[in-house]
Amino acid sequence: MSYLFPLFAILFWAGNVIVSKMAASAISPTAITFYRLVLALAIMGLFTAVPAWRNRKIILRHWPKLALYGALSSALFQALSYRAAETTTATNMAIVTALIPLLSMLLSVVVLRDPLTLGMAVGGVLSFLGLLYLVGQGDMLAVFHNGVHVGDGLMLLAAFSYALYGVLLRHWKVPLPAWQSTFVQSFFALLYMLPLFLKVPAAQAALDVKTVPLILYAGIFSSVLLSFLWIEGVHRLGPNRCSIFINLLPLFTAMAAFALLREQLHGYHLLGGAVTLAGVLLAQTVQRPLFGRGAGAGLAAGKA
Predict the structure, then answer these.
(1) DSSP character string of 178-207
(2) pLDDT tens, 116-134?
(3) How far apart are CA 247 and CA 290, in angstroms?
């Protein structure tokens, strides 16, 4: 039963990718990011505002870290994702998003001085090659000739932003319960988005029968329920086991995109996505240090 928590979290995440694609032609990326934060804060505030107020001394002591967390996760990641959806497919978005665990591990080598593992090295190369094949639509040299497609490049920046957020969470420990930390981060993200939202033309921020359902999904399912399921999954299974479920994101998204958006699944999606995800899975499971001793213990830990 514990595996259902991260599984449903990834299902909601796949739904969020679909919503991002639907929102691309209906509402400004800045506007939907702002609205989803307002809605998420209103819901979380029902059970989080009072406990957070009791911990206000801790929040004031660590507010710069919480403010940076909010910028990287709730503001930058979401806004870039919605912007990327304007010029790339939902399937591509999901495959690039699934790189977050690998990017997190590689960043942890630089920021946290974690040892570089064989899985990271080989998996990183595999994922890079798979990504080149994917964004080049079957031509690995197309990126070097034509550059990275705007939407795919923005999604890669979004994934990097969220990966950095995860690494900094480990680097800077903030003694707050997860819900309170998420609530405060979302509050800072809302502050960042407010001046940008005020500059959005009224027509691009309209609330109507097309945009309200998208905002409701983004604010309730993507922001609140997804967070609950993921936090509970990490509590029950641990972060490493939960991160493996992210590899299912492209599969769920591709199925939903085919059914709801009529996106076509091409051979380069299958091959490029498979190679990319194989690299991510390799990095997650093979923990043998690339340099130094302790290879046997590292490999055993990766299989635990």
Answers:
(1) HHHHHHHHHHHHHHHHHHHHHTS-GGGG--
(2) 889 889 999 999 999 888 8
(3) 24
Query: Shortest CA distance to 5 belongs to which of 176, 242, 288?
Result: 242
Specify the length of the chain in residues. 304
Which pLDDT does position 168 carry in this prediction? 93
| Assigned token pair, 116 | 């570089």
Cα of 72 vs its chain's centroid, Å: 10
Q: Can you tell me whether residue 148 is helix, strand or coil?
A: coil
On whether the CB atoms of residues 159 and 99 are closer than 8 A, the answer is: yes
DSSP 38-106: HHHHHHHHHHHHHHHHHTHHHHHHSHHHHHHHHIIIIIIIHHHHHHHTTTS-HHHHHHHHTTHHHHHHH
Provide φ and ψ at 117, rounded to 5°: -100, 165
**Angle ∠(239,106,288) on CA atoms, nearest 5:** 75
Q: Number of helices and strands (H, E) in the chain?
A: 17, 0
